[in-house]
Design a protein that fits this description.
- The structure is a single chain.
- The chain has 199 residues and is mostly helical.
- It has two domains: 98 residues, no CATH class; 79 residues, no CATH class.
- It has ten helices and two strands; from the N terminus they run H-E-E-H-H-H-H-H-H-H-H-H.
- Strand 1 and strand 2 form a beta hairpin.
- Helix 1 runs antiparallel to helix 10.
Length: 199
């Protein structure tokens, strides 16, 4: 049985599952729109592969792991607000961020980052991409299906990408394994734990 920090009752697990289904549906609907997100009091853009690559090039511990410094927080916020190349906007951003407690900022950045991947495929279902660098597989998958340019794809929000991956999988193999997101898999696991069943 999977480890679970909080063991739910069967009723709680059922309610959690139904809530997850509802949340996932609403967020799928919202992902098609470029709705700005918030980190603390700062409006940011949805997280994209381009942002991920920029942070990777800078060896950001927020995505690579390790001790996070104030400069790492500022870099992350500069990238997700697209203000790095605008001196006036960058200065304004820094002035706003220094008023926020670093731990609060880190917590909200972490939530924003993790939420961008919560609908990614799990290892329990079919993996739609596999590569030494998974972003190339995503670009190849979407470009092959839709003919979109690399530039278009790397600027798509991850939340939208996972929904395209889901649609492609279901179209290519409608009777195959069901695409299960990380979020849904967690809800399913908690339900099986409550039942005492090993999935």
């Amino acid at each position: 049985m999977r480890e679970c920090s909080v063991i739910m009752t069967i009723q709680e697990a059922q309610e959690n599952y139904l809530l997850t289904v509802d949340v996932e549906k609403r967020q799928h609907d919202a992902s098609i729109l470029d709705i700005p997100e918030m980190i603390c009091t700062v409006q940011v853009k949805p997280f994209t592969p381009r942002m991920y690559c920029l942070l990777g090039l800078k060896q950001s511990p927020i995505i690579k792991g390790g001790q996070v410094k104030d400069t790492d927080l500022l870099l992350f916020m500069g990238i997700v607000t697209d203000t790095l190349n605008d001196e006036a906007k960058r200065k304004e951003l820094v002035e706003r961020l220094v008023k926020i407690e670093p731990q609060q900022l880190l917590d909200e950045i972490t939530t924003y980052y993790e939420n961008s991947f919560i609908d990614a495929p799990t290892s329990n279902g079919k993996q739609p991409f596999c590569s030494s660098h998974w972003l190339f597989s995503i670009v190849d998958l979407i470009a092959s299906a839709y003919g979109w340019s690399e530039e278009t794809i790397i600027n798509l929000p991850f939340k939208r990408i996972w929904n395209y991956v889901r649609a492609m999988q279901q179209r290519s193999d409608p009777n195959g394994s069901v695409y299960v997101s990380n979020r849904m898999q967690q809800a399913i696991d908690k339900y099986y734990d409550a039942l005492g069943i090993t999935n």
